[in-house]
Design brief:
With about 170 residues, the chain is mostly helical. Helix content is about 65%, strand content about 0%. The protein has six helices and no strands. Helix 3 runs antiparallel to helix 6 (about 145-170). The longest helix is centred in the middle third of the chain and has 29 residues, at about 50-80. The radius of gyration is 16 Å and the shape is globular. It starts with 5 loop residues before the first helix and ends with a helix.
Length: about 170
């Protein structure tokens, strides 16, 4: 599968959400609605005038999301066949892993409390952190094993790109 542009991934995920009525859930109850909102918000601003670090992070983010999207497409049949966790301990392990990965990633991103008097609107790291704080409110109680697998893949993709950015700074 070729690299998709952000608009193509957004359109395809929007179609999935509408066709499968994921948008009928309450706030923060659908993994796919939360990712869709994030993509729409992060794709809203042009990176043309951003500093090179923000441009690189944005490019790496969309490359990582493209990789996640390919996994999502391959897993779609599993996602559409809801199965509950048979083992609460396994659910708890997945949940704790997702929480820890999210916390690690958020700690690597700037929090806006930096020494800069103004945060630039095209500072992709700050915008990503803002979106991840919102995304992290996802209610994981209703996630199936297939959803959790994709959630962990999502955090893994972000961890790779944010971790690489963090290493470049140090």
């Amino acid at each position: 599968m070729e690299q998709k542009q952000p608009n193509q991934m957004i359109a395809a995920l929007w179609t999935f959400v509408k066709e499968n009525r994921e948008d009928q859930f309450g706030p923060h109850e659908s993994l796919y609605v939360e990712i869709l909102k994030q993509w729409e918000n992060l794709n809203r601003y042009s990176m043309a005038w951003a500093d090179p670090k923000s441009q690189r992070l944005a490019k790496d983010y969309w490359r990582g999301m493209n990789s996640w999207f390919k996994k999502f497409i391959r897993q779609q049949d599993k996602v559409l066949e809801p199965q509950a966790f048979n083992n609460r301990e396994l659910f708890n392990l997945f949940d704790q892993t997702a929480k820890q990965m999210a916390m690690d990633i958020l700690l690597m991103l700037p929090d806006g409390q930096t020494k800069q008097p103004v945060v630039k609107i095209n500072d992709f790291a700050f915008r990503l952190r803002t979106e991840l704080l919102e995304f992290n409110q996802l209610n994981r109680d209703g996630l199936t094993p297939a959803d959790f697998e994709l959630l962990l893949e999502y955090w893994h993709e972000l961890y790779q790109l944010v971790g690489l950015q963090d290493e470049e700074v140090n």
